[in-house]
Amino acid sequence: MLRVENLDVFYGDAQALDAVSLEVGEGAIVAIVGANGAGKTSLIRAIAGMLKPARGRILFGATDIAGWPSHRVCNLGIGQVAEGRQIFPTLSVAENLAMGALLPRARARREANRERVVALFPVLAERSRQAAGTLSGGEQQMLAIGRALMGAPELIMFDEPSLGLAPAVAHQLLATIRELNRDGLTCLLVEQNVALSLKLASRAYVLENGRITLAGTGSELLADDRVRSAYLGL
């Protein structure tokens, strides 16, 4: 579904991504593992259209979307749950969800998508009139995921979905990602809980200093001594 080929991204003279290549198969969960500053968020932002690559291709199906503006990327079917959630804090829960349905591709399915979201996260229906900024961290992350689902994506990129959350809430949200995947949603997952993300992933990549250094199935990387030493403390 998604193929990145030899992607270079710079911030001024500083190179964030260096010849990065990876594939996300339809219906898969693909994990990106790496330390802080490795380039994981830069990769997500380049795919989403928030950063313009210096070189390389980003193929969604047969379409090269490298350099497209983010609204066109979203309307093609790529959603994003950004690091830090990035909800609209002064808008209500219902208004935040409505913002996600503004994409042309999503308008006709707005009610069906909303029903799907509140079935996944009933608390969002209970808090529909509440200002989003007054929700707990876990509820805000549910809202961020729900808003992405309102855009009717075929693929969602999750950037650190469990960051700052209590372990029980984090496990619940990652279980929801697995459930969405079982329902047919393709997922690209950047997650600080390396062990859990590799258990979820059918394929995974290790990103170090802007380069892909390891690739394999999630179980292969989970058993790799280099990964276990660097990221699992084993």
How would you describe this protein?
With 234 residues, this protein is an alpha/beta fold. The protein contains 10 helices and 10 strands. It has helices at 40-48, 70-76, 93-100, 110-120, 122-126, 137-150, 167-182, 194-200, 218-223, 225-231; strands at 2-11, 14-24, 29-33, 55-60, 63-64, 78-81, 155-159, 186-190, 203-208, 211-216. A 6-stranded mixed sheet has the order 6-7-8-3-9-10, sandwiched between helices. α3 runs parallel beside α6 (137-150). The longest helix has 16 residues, at 167-182.
Q: What Rg, in angstroms, do the CA atoms define? A: 17 Å
Overall structural class, as computed from helix and strand content, comes to alpha/beta
Report mean pLDDT, rounded to a whole number: 94
- Distance between the first and last residues' Cα: 34 Å
Query: How large is the share of residues in beta strands?
Result: 25-35%
Tally of extended strands? 10
Envelope shape = globular
Strand order of the largest sheet: 6-7-8-3-9-10
The sequence of SSEs as H and E is EEEHEEHEHHHHEHEHEEHH
User: Major beta sheet, specifics?
Assistant: 6 strands, mixed
**What percent of the residues sit in helical stretches (DSSP H or I)?**
25-40%
Low-confidence stretches: none
Number of helices: 10
Short description:
With 234 residues, the protein is an alpha/beta fold. The protein is built from ten helices and ten strands.
Keywords:
globular, 4-stranded antiparallel beta sheet, 10 strands, alpha/beta, 6-stranded mixed beta sheet, 10 helices, 234 residues, single chain
What's the SSE blueprint?
Layout: E1 2-11, E2 14-24, E3 29-33, H1 40-48, E4 55-60, E5 63-64, H2 70-76, E6 78-81, H3 93-100, H4 110-120, H5 122-126, H6 137-150, E7 155-159, H7 167-182, E8 186-190, H8 194-200, E9 203-208, E10 211-216, H9 218-223, H10 225-231
Parallel strand pairs: 3-8, 3-9, 6-7, 7-8
Antiparallel strand pairs: 1-2, 1-4, 4-5, 9-10
Helix pairs in contact: 3-6, 4-6
